[in-house]
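cron nightly-structures :: item 1 of 1
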Amino acid sequence: MTERPVRILVCDDHTVVRAGLLALLRSAPDIEVVGEAGSGEEALALARKTAPDVVLMDLQLGAGIDGVETTRRLRAMSTAPHVLVLTTYDTDADVTRAVAAGATGYLLKAERAEDLFTAIHAAARGRPALSPPVADRVMSRLRNPRPTLTPRERDILAQLAQGLPNHAIARALFISEATVKTHLRRIYDKLGVDTRAGAVAVAKEQRLLS
């Protein structure tokens, strides 16, 4: 008796990309597409109706909740599907946030079809699946853990989380704006990000903000 096909829901806000994925997935006899969504909200609604085994999730979904928040809400469901991220973004911040939200795997859209199919079946069994570049980054971080933030860097990060611009942070902490910029560069490097929003997101995920 053969195993039943893996039931999969695709969430991607780009119609053309989604159409290509659906055509590819439907060519696999052991995968059954049960729905497609163009937003996080739509994915959540469809997941409740169709109970997929795996949700193939993009991270950037335009307006509304993003892929990370959608993943978190999917994993909180009573019949939680596994989530396999499929994206073009592979920064440390993106990988960290997705895994912290409950993603079972993290693939890049440049992967071969065979590797995508293999990852889907692994995810359906709850086994992790990472693209080689993502796995390399994860292993690199494990081998070379980044230094912890200094008290001053934590102060600046806390101000950053409040949405304050550099000049306001400088005024609040009684330091120069140039000093703020220097600390920000160090914070970005330690957290593996390159934007203010990325720094705040990683800080929240890693509970660096008191």
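cron nightly-structures :: done
The mean pLDDT is 88.
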